[in-house]
UniProtKB/TrEMBL annotation:
InterPro entries: AA-Vitamin_Transporters, EamA_dom, EmrE-like
Protein's recorded name: DMT family transporter
Organism of this sequence: Hominibacterium faecale
Membrane topology (UniProt): Multi-pass membrane protein
Places the protein is found: Cell membrane
Transmembrane regions: 12-31, 37-56, 68-84, 90-114, 126-143, 149-167, 188-205, 217-238, 250-268, 274-293
Alphabetized UniProt keyword annotations: Cell membrane, Membrane, Transmembrane, Transmembrane helix
Family per similarity comment: Belongs to the EamA transporter family.
Length: 301
């Protein structure tokens, strides 16, 4: 039985978000003895090593100008996005950052419409789904508490979401080159790590690996490096290549849902009625944006 390539793409996007939605636990554990920049550098260095072992064949580009696209993808998706996110968390509440980063699919849709005309058309359902999903994400993140704005932190989070949108477009462009996804992801990681080097000098980076002697720390850095980085960036890039940047990015909406469910199961945190309503709204927003729920049909009844 032949599986529809689009189904593979949607499956890859869903799998990626299921993993990325749980990474906060590993990051939270590692932050006990590691700085954010150390976690970021070690996870992508480990991810790069894994991709080299899996697919050691060298990527030979047919055009030199393609190198610029890979460099920009590494700068946006590996270096800037995570740095901006981590710095934003030092200024503003995690709930604010979570909500703002979920705007990335909206930015992706707008940028795709502006720079890749004819690639993926934006329908009314995309905007209705976005509104529903954001309402749900706000309910999940704030859970009845008051919204507290911090201009610096919130602006950094908005910038991070915009940077990820650019990364999605660059990934779609790279997919048109016809190279294997593992090779293109590996190339992106290399540039991301190179751009990260100046940040290592600016922030509190220490290279002692003795801390990884702890089984708990070792497991979590392996999960972030091998699972959330090596595997998930390949599956995400495959999804973008197969179903497009906009449809793939829409799955970001359910990242807060996965985070809540994981918190309840692993950390035994309580779930409230507002959170359940938020989850339902977010899932509805995803389905509407993907065109799985036909608004016109339901409104006509």
């Amino acid at each position: 039985m032949t599986v529809d390539p689009a189904m593979k793409g949607h499956g890859a996007a869903l799998f990626t978000i299921l993993v990325w939605g749980t990474t906060f636990i590993s990051t939270k554990i590692l932050l006990t003895d590691f700085t954010p920049i150390e976690i970021l550098f070690f996870r992508f260095l480990l991810g790069l090593a894994a991709l080299i072992l899996v697919y050691p064949r060298r990527l030979r580009l047919t055009e030199r100008k393609q190198e610029v696209t890979f460099a920009l993808a590494g700068l946006c998706g590996v270096c800037l996005y995570y740095l901006l996110e981590n710095i934003a968390l030092t200024y503003t509440m995690a709930s604010n950052v979570g909500v703002i980063l979920s705007v990335a699919p909206f930015f992706t849709g707008i940028l795709t419409h502006l720079f890749m005309k004819g690639e993926e058309k934006l329908k009314t359902s995309f905007f209705i789904g976005f509104a529903a999903a954001m309402a749900g994400i706000c309910l999940i993140s704030f859970n009845g508490s008051a919204l507290k704005l911090n201009p610096m932190g919130d602006l950094l989070a908005v910038t991070a979401a915009l940077v990820w949108a650019f990364y999605s477009l660059l990934t779609k462009k790279i997919s048109s080159y016809g190279y294997p996804t593992v090779q293109t992801t590996r190339r992106t990681f290399i540039y991301g790590l190179l751009f990260m080097v100046p940040a290592l000098l600016l922030f509190d980076f220490h290279g002692e690996l003795s801390r990884l002697a702890s089984p708990v720390y070792l497991f979590n850095i392996l999960f972030l490096g091998l699972g959330a980085s090596a595997v998930c960036f390949v599956t995400w890039n495959f999804a973008v290549k197969t179903v497009g940047a906009v449809k793939t990015s829409i799955y970001i909406y359910i990242c807060p849902v996965i985070t809540v469910v994981t918190s309840v199961v692993v950390l035994h945190e309580k779930i409230t009625g507002l959170m359940i309503l938020g989850i339902l709204l977010t899932l509805a927003g995803l389905l509407i944006s993907e065109g799985r729920i036909d608004i016109k049909k339901h409104s006509a009844r």
